[in-house]
Write a structure and sequence with these properties.
With about 150 residues, this protein is α+β, with helices and mostly antiparallel strands. It has four helices and nine strands; from the N terminus they run ββαβααββαββββ. The strands form three sheets. It has a four-stranded mixed β-sheet. Strands 2-1-3 form a three-stranded antiparallel β-sheet, sandwiched between helices. A hairpin with a 2-residue loop joins β8 and β9. The longest helix has 17 residues. The radius of gyration is 19 Å and the shape is elongated. One of its GO terms (cellular component) is ribonucleoprotein complex.
Length: about 150
């Protein structure tokens, strides 16, 4: 079965790639989840749209990745407010990667891809936590978030 990927699929390819997979894998996994579309002549035009969208949000090259790393280093500690139980320091729920991306953006930092963030374990307590982000295959950056209780 010939498919065009719409998102990154580990071990298979990235958005816009045309891949040949077994029928069951494509029909039962990739297509229902929206990870791929059937490769037709009309879908070739969609590939161009997907690639343009990917280029706009992707780190362009090694130099751009180093610039983004420098911007993250200049931020220092990123503040993040979350609902917490009074006195205990435990959060209601946990901090997600989308919360971290929004906090970095609101602190004046660069726009990051939430899928590139690497958080060790779940963040369920108030305090400082380290987060790393994979900007480029050769460049990764680390920064600290300060989780505080929202009043």
């Amino acid at each position: 079965m010939k498919l065009i990927l719409t998102t990154d699929v580990s071990g298979l390819g990235g958005p816009g790639d045309i891949v040949e997979v077994k029928d069951g894998y494509g029909r039962n996994y990739l297509l229902p989840r929206g990870y791929a579309i059937v490769a037709t002549k009309g879908a070739e035009k969609q590939v161009q749209v997907i690639r343009r969208a990917q280029e706009a949000s992707r780190i362009r090259d090694l130099d751009h990745a180093k610039e983004v790393k420098a911007k993250l280093a200049d931020l220092g500690t990123v503040p993040l407010k979350a609902k917490a139980a009074a006195g205990s320091g435990k959060l209601f729920g946990s901090i997600t990667t989308a919360d971290i991306v929004a906090a970095v953006k609101s602190a004046g930092g660069p726009v990051l891809d939430k899928r590139a963030l690497e958080v060790s374990g779940h963040i369920k307590t108030v305090g400082k936590h380290s987060v790393s982000v994979r900007l480029h295959p050769e460049v990764s950056a680390a920064f600290t978030i300060q989780v505080t209780a929202a009043s």
